[in-house]
Q: What sequence folds into this?
């Protein structure tokens, strides 16, 4: 099937026909608007005001391929090569996890609790695209940020985004489970580690399972808290007294995760969808 013409109304009709049954009608419309804005530089307000305007033939070809990619359930952010996160633009040219709205909530919590503080030393374990580390640096500019990841794709993507945003952070390739951490003396440790159990894969959408890096999402059923335990161990020697840990968690493992931080002043916090999604743990000594 081809797009009938290069008018926006026909592009939208084509998208609705091609993607029916995969996404909701509203999802299809919103994704198509985003693609038109991205490839054709037409604002959404202009699209809605005049859907009979035409795009260039070269742009139409890009839109056709993009809609075909959506049909294969490739995430929109990967198609466009970027995502917006907490008022910064993050490139996604490498195979890293797409930052979620819940992670924006985590960042917002940290910023609100620490805005205006000077000379904070903050670690982001499992930095991925650099979303957490760079948004914290952007909003707490006097802080010293360290971003760690084991994956080359994540290290390269974080470096690329730091350069594009002109934000100066420290980026190191390290394995949380094996490498030695000593004498960092952090004020804050933050992480969105893998926490989805393999048995929960059936609950995930195909666009996630087919395209996003599984090592950033899933943990073995028999050892689902392995990264939380590793971070707690690192915090014993590298987090200052009264320093805080902020992490995303698996809702079904919230109480078990809290027990990992039993020697801390620990709170389980709900997200905007009323799910137990975060944990904050203050080191007592």
A:
């Amino acid at each position: 099937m081809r797009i009938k013409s290069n008018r926006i109304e026909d592009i939208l009709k084509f998208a609705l026909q091609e993607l029916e049954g995969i996404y909701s009608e509203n999802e299809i419309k919103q994704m198509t608007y985003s693609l038109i804005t991205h490839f054709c530089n037409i604002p959404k307000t202009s699209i809605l005001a005049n859907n009979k305007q035409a795009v260039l033939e070269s742009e139409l070809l890009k839109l056709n391929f993009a809609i075909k990619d959506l049909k294969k359930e490739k995430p929109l952010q990967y198609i466009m090569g970027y995502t917006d996160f907490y008022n910064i633009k993050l490139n996604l040219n490498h195979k890293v996890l797409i930052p979620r709205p819940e992670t924006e909530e985590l960042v917002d919590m940290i910023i609100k609790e620490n805005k205006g503080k000077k000379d904070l030393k903050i670690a982001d374990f499992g930095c991925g695209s650099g979303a957490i580390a760079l948004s914290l640096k952007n909003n707490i500019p006097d802080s010293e940020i360290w971003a760690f990841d084991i994956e080359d794709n994540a290290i390269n993507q974080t470096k690329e985004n730091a350069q594009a945003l002109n934000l100066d952070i420290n980026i190191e390739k390290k394995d949380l489970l094996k490498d030695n951490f000593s004498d960092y003396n952090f004020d804050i440790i933050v992480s969105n580690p893998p926490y989805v159990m393999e048995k929960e894969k059936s609950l995930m959408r195909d666009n996630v399972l087919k395209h996003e890096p599984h090592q950033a999402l899933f943990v073995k059923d028999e050892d689902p808290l392995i990264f939380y335990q590793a971070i707690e161990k690192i915090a014993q020697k590298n987090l200052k007294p009264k320093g805080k840990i902020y992490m995303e968690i698996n809702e079904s493992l919230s109480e078990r995760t809290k027990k990992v931080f039993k020697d801390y002043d620990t709170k389980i916090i709900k997200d905007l969808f009323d799910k137990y999604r975060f944990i904050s743990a203050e080191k007592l000594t």
About this structure: The chain has two domains: 8-72, 94-283. The two ends are 66 Å apart (CA to CA).
